[in-house]
């Protein structure tokens, strides 16, 4: 009897250990992940994001873009935030990020503020996710509960950043293919592209469109040409708003622009150019609540891309370098 009980105890112990291993490796993100370990997290992040946007409304779009560019490269793991060093090559100088990704100082400020209230608890990857949500909400967009529990990567991949982030010259098939590869639907693609209702782009990103393409409103093209010379090397970093109507307010005007052939980037106008996404663009242009709802759904799905959980990765002390 004692022998049977001993065997039962050993089996039970093995099952408990096995369950612990599998549950930690398959740990799921949750909206209340830090409810006990860092109860003031959301108010701390929001205060810093709000201060940054009050100084410069464009910063909201910049923070949102950081989250996109992080998630699209090996998942939402904070790898984008790592600085290059003599022995480490990060993603900040990949083509999609060089001279355009910005807001890193704001993330540093948020991290410092969070460390003051909850040292060593909250990941930089999660801070990015919260900052993106807060930016959208503070600029007039929808609110949602952010799923948390990501850990920070100890590595980065410039090659993956160069290959994984869709270029502004991408055609519709390329965009659909890339989003689908990450588990995002074509509808998610259109909804997430609606983030271009805020923010600005550099002349280098839209020069070819305003001079060479025919599916563009002529007056719109001429206006943009006045601040973006045809010759490469001249005015390359001059900026133009992605949404000419309400560039610092998160709404559905972006889709109205596309219908009027006033998409700034080639990849924007591809969403309304006689293809499979035309109907979704039309729907969002007429129904802002439908756009907001689908945007939230797509943001949550994007935030679920390959997070590091359990014992994987780390909680960085400084978002710019591994511990």
Descriptive notes:
Helix content is 50%, strand content 2%. It is an all-alpha fold and 323 residues long. It has 2 domains: 41-165, Orthogonal Bundle (Peroxidase, domain 1), CATH 1.10.520.10; 172-302, Peroxidase, domain 2, CATH 1.10.420.
Provide the CATH architecture of the largest domain. Answer: Orthogonal Bundle
β content, as a range?
Answer: under 5%
CATH fourth-tier homologous superfamily of the largest domain: Peroxidase, domain 2
Let me know the number of strands: 2
Shape verdict: globular
Strand order of the largest sheet: 1-2
Provide a count of the helices.
Answer: 14
CATH uppermost class of the largest domain: Mainly Alpha
Share of helix among residues? 40-55%
Would you tell me the structural class of the helices and strands?
A: mainly alpha
- Over all CA atoms, what is the radius of gyration? 22 Å
What's this entry about, in short?
With 323 residues, this protein is mainly alpha-helical. The protein has 14 helices and two strands.
Topology:
Blueprint: H1 2-25, H2 41-55, H3 58-71, H4 104-117, H5 124-138, H6 158-164, H7 172-181, H8 186-193, E1 200-202, H9 203-212, H10 218-225, E2 239-241, H11 253-259, H12 266-269, H13 278-286, H14 288-303
């Amino acid at each position: 009897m004692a022998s049977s009980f001993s065997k039962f105890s050993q089996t039970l112990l093995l099952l408990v250990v096995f369950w612990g291993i599998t549950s930690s490796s398959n740990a799921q993100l949750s909206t209340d992940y830090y409810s006990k370990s860092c109860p003031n997290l959301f108010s701390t992040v929001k205060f810093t994001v709000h201060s940054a946007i009050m100084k410069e409304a464009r910063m909201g779009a910049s923070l949102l873009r950081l989250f996109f560019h992080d998630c699209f490269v090996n998942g939402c793991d904070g790898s984008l935030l790592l600085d290059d060093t003599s022995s480490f090559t990060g993603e900040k100088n990949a083509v999609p990020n060089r001279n355009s990704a910005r807001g890193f100082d704001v993330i540093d400020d948020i991290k410092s503020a969070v460390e003051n209230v909850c040292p060593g608890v909250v990941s930089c990857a999660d801070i990015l996710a919260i900052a993106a949500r807060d930016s959208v909400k503070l600029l007039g967009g929808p609110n949602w509960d952010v799923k948390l529990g990501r850990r920070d990567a100890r590595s980065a991949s410039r090659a993956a950043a160069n290959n994984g982030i869709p270029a502004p010259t991408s055609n519709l098939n390329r965009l659909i293919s890339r989003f689908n590869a990450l588990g995002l639907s074509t509808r998610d693609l259109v909804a997430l592209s609606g983030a271009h209702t805020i923010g600005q782009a550099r002349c280098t990103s839209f020069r070819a469109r305003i001079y060479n393409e025919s599916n563009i409103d002529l007056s719109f093209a001429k206006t943009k040409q006045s601040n973006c010379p045809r010759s490469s090397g001249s005015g390359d970093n001059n900026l133009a708003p992605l949404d000419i109507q309400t560039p610092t307010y998160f709404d559905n005007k972006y889709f109205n622009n596309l219908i009027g052939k006033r998409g700034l980037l080639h990849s924007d106008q591809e969403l309304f150019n006689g293809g499979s996404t035309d109907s979704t663009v039309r729907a969002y242009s007429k129904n802002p609540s439908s756009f907001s709802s689908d945007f939230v759904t797509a943001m949550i799905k994007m935030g679920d891309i390959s997070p590091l959980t359990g014992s994987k990765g780390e909680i960085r002390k400084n978002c710019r370098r591994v511990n």
